[in-house]
Amino acid sequence: MTHTRRSNPAQLTAGGKAADGLGDHVQKSLAKLEGAHKGVAGGADGFAFAASLGKVFESWDRRLGALRGECWSIAEAFRTNAGNDQATEQGLVAGMNEKFNDLVNFKAGH
After folding, report:
1. What are the residue boundaries of the structural domains of the chain, listed by start?
2. What is the pLDDT of residues 43-86, one digit of tens each?
3. Average pLDDT over residues 22-34
4. Which one, 1, 21, 51, 97, has least CB within 10 Å?
5. Which of 8, 14, 9 is nearest to 74 (CA)?
6. CA-to-CA distance for 100 and 104, rounded, in angstroms?
7. Residue 9 half-sphere exposure, CB side, CA atoms within 13 Å?
8. DSSP string covering the chain
């Protein structure tokens, strides 16, 4: 049994945009978190928890940075597949049209 993959380039493109948007949101949130951290860390000099605060921020920075990268990677994969599907579909239609025209011309004696 042959399985046919069914995809819609518009849906893939929309998925890519959604993943890009999520990555952008994570980026903005990370920037806000960094700003807040700097403000708190600046006022925490000399306190025992200052070093722990820095480690917490580094952990969040690493995790959110990885999440942002994954979102943007997924977005790129969606866009690439949408483009590949669209190009394949257009190539298939052009090839079928060419063969149809060849058949018509053959039957017409051209």
Report:
1. 9-82
2. 877 787 878 888 899 999 999 999 999 999 999 888 888 877 66
3. 94
4. 1
5. 14
6. 6
7. 11
8. --------HHHHHHHHHHHHHHHHHHHHHHHHHHHHHHHHHHH-TTSTTHHHHHHHHHHHHHHHHHHHHHHHHHHHHHHHHHHHHHHHHHHHHHHHHHHHHHHHHHHHT-
For residue 6, count other CB atoms closer than 10 A to its CB: 6
Amino acid at 53: L
Instruction: Identify residue 46 by its one-letter amino acid code.
Output: G
**pTM for this structure?**
0.66
